[in-house]
Amino acid sequence: MTTDHHLHTPTPTADAAGTWQLGDRTVNRLGLGAMRLGGMPWEPPRNRDDALAVLRRAVELGVDHIDTAAFYFTPTRLANELISTALQPFPDDLTLVTKVGPSRSRDGEFEPMARPEQLRGQVEENLRQLGIDTIDVVNLRCGTSMDKTDASIAEHLGALAELRDAGLLRHIGISNVTADQLTEALTVTPVVSVQNRYGLTDRGDDDLLELCGAKGIAFVPFFAVATASGASPDGPDTTGQAQISAIAEKYDASPAQIRLAWTLHRGPHVLAIPGTGNPAHLEQNIASASLRLDDADLATLDAIAAG
Questions:
Q1: Residue 221's beta-bridge partner residues?
Q2: Whole-model pTM?
Q3: Which of 73, 107, 168, 231 is the 20 to 30 Å CA partner of 297?
Q4: 72 is catalytic
């Protein structure tokens, strides 16, 4: 009689990387981004049942932080609707984070950045799609492209603070911002998170990441593994590919898992929200929370962007 040892191997869960506080919400540092759930505009539509299965499996594996937006949609899929369908009634410990500022018209084209007085309608759109009365965290996402601006965000944040006081949201975050904009934001309202583009080969916000840590604010990279999968708008990034692949082989992991593990090693306040509509990729992403890279490997990885 043979024994299948794989039956006794525990499935890695999202709590392996520890937790962080988003205001009064405790979240596992490995979460889920919803942008890819329904597929990307240039891809064929994803299977709806797969998307629902990803969401349910994510929660089973300890994901308690989902990042979404009303403007995450394709002609046949809407991320917020998938989340509501898959997970209602929402678990008490599930933290939902959305973003406002950008919006898209019914035909999918991005519209100009919302004015402060338009933010209430955007928040209410998310509430309606998710089927809830209050959103845990709303990020003000600055601009409609990857380019940052130096525009003042005080008025917009004042409008969000009014919506928080009215009970539509619990906490405020900011996205696609500079250090100066974070400093300005903190004169208007407490900020629980900064969500910017950042990753192993995209290190422009190293200083902002450190600033967030010093202030006890979560730093939440987006596109942290996109360069590994070619999903970045700029196309595949092959920088450091040989070193990343060699380290991945050492840990019996994928390059994307190494990128995620490196991201989580950047500080206890750094969260990860990799997105996928593929159940197998979901489990790989969550398993990265358990990876512990040694100092030599971290030094090798850190040197890639510097080179």
A1: 196
A2: 0.93
A3: 231
A4: yes
